[in-house]
Every structure is written in C-alpha cells, then in structure tokens.
Amino acid sequence: MTSPGEERPESGTEPTAADILGAALGNAARRVGLGADGDESTQKVVWGAMGGWRGILESVLPSLAFVVIFTVRPEPLLLSLGVSVGLAAVFTLVRLLQKSPPSAAIGGLLAAGAAAGLALWTGRGADNFVPGLITNALYGTAMIVAALIGWSLIGLAVGFLMGEGTAWRGDRRKRRVYFWLGIAWGALFLIRLSVQLPLYLADEVTLLGTLKLVMGLPLFAPMVAVTWLAVRTLYPRAE
C-alpha cells in the first residue's frame, strides 16, 4: 500500500539514489526512536534516541574513563586507551549475552578501537579524538550541503518514515522546515568541530575530552526534541 502523494519507483525500475539514501536514513531514525507514531511523547522519543540509561553509559563511560585516567596518569598511554576500549568491549559482550540489539555497542567498540589504534601508532593521546573530529566535519558538511541543494537529509529520513518518500519536496512548508532542521544539525556538528579542533592542535587532551563529553549528549538530546516537535507539526495526528 502506498500513502497519498507517495512516490514509488515503477515496477522493474532501479531505485534512485534519493530512494536508497532516504530509506537508509529512515531506518536509522527509526532505530533511535524517531518513529511515525503520533502517540509518542517528546520525552520518550529523546530517551529512545539516547538509548536509555544503557545507551548513555555506553556513549559516555569509555571517553570519560580515558579522560580521567589520562589526566591522572598520562603514561603509559596504553593504560587509558586500554580501559576505554575494554569498557566498550564489556558493553558489547553484555548486549550479545542478553541478545539485545548490539549495533550501537558494536559501533562504539569499533570506533573506540580505531581511535585507540591511531593514538598508539602516533603516541599522541589527542589522536584518540581524530575519528570524532572527522565525523563532525563530514556530518556537518553533508547536512548543510544537502539542505542548501534542496535535499535535506532530515527530510529524506522523515519522508520515508512517514511513507511519503520524497513527496515532501512538493510542499513548501515541509521544505522550509526540513531546510532549517538540516542547517541546525549541520551547525551542531560544525560547532563541535570548531571548538574541538583548536584544542586538538594545541594537544590539550584533558580539555578536549571534557568538551567532547559536554558537547555530546547534552546538545544531542535538545536537538532531537526540537526535530521531533517540528516534525509533529507537519504531520498532525488523525482524529
């Protein structure tokens, strides 16, 4: 069944790049709690996006452990990196044993392992934050460029969640809302980069790690809430 206004590729035709990207973004948004259920409260959506207490611990503790241990005892570097990666490995193992979705924990483990490997290779604690800097640069640029050319990544995700594909591009109000949401998300990533990159270049590891934590979930949660509230105004619940 297709929703009114939904654009579907004709039978036998290949999906477009926008179809594939939108579906992928929609699935990702659904996994973090941004579903199309009008009964969900903003608090529930934000809590789901953060993964609850487990998700918060999985995203905060490895980085926090690295910062604390590195500050107290910067040498050997392997100690702080090992504890950080070890915590990520424990979270992943617990999820596997409990047969709960391990994707977030596995992603965190891979990211922590790659960052630790780079830091050990260069011998600089600050290089543990390089993957995060690259992520902020890529995500921020992609969000803003996509919004500026009229293909907001937020719009693509919500469009496929709501079953209308890319039909939202024909609605001026939706295009405007998704444009500004895309700009806001892109600005969030680039602001992180602009604050953290000078600290990385100055080799201020403790301050860099602290600000990474402060500019993580505390900024992510309000952005999810704003996005959810904006989307709900575009898709009022049926009586």
Automatic annotation (TrEMBL):
Stretches that traverse the bilayer: 53-72, 78-97, 104-122, 142-165, 177-195, 215-235
One protein family per Pfam: DUF3159
Record organism: Microbacterium soli
Name of the protein in question: DUF3159 domain-containing protein
Keywords: Membrane, Transmembrane, Transmembrane helix
Keyword Membrane set for record: yes
